[in-house]
Design brief:
single chain, alpha+beta, four-stranded antiparallel beta sheet, 4 strands, about 25% strand
Length: about 70
C-alpha cells in the first residue's frame, strides 16, 4: 500500500503526459471523509479537469491530483 501511495503521482503523470499536476492535501475527521470525497468528486466532475483522487482513509486524509 505504501508503494502505491508513493507512486500515485507518477501514475497520474503517465496517464496525462502533457499535463502538470497540482497536488492538494486535505485532512478531515474520519467520519467526514467519504462525504467530502464525494462532494469534491461531484464538483470536479463538472469541470474540464482530470483529477485522480488518492486517499489514506485510515487518517482521514486525501489528495486530489488536479491535472492541468
Amino acid at each position: 500500500m505504501w508503494r502505491v501511495r508513493k507512486e500515485a503521482l507518477w501514475y497520474a503523470m503517465a496517464q496525462y503526459p502533457d499535463y502538470q499536476a497540482l497536488i492538494t492535501d486535505v485532512c478531515v475527521p474520519l467520519s467526514n471523509l467519504s462525504k467530502l470525497i464525494c462532494t469534491t468528486k461531484k464538483e470536479l466532475d463538472e469541470s474540464i479537469l482530470a483529477f485522480p483522487i488518492v486517499a489514506h482513509a485510515c487518517y482521514g486524509n486525501f489528495h486530489v491530483l488536479i491535472m492541468f
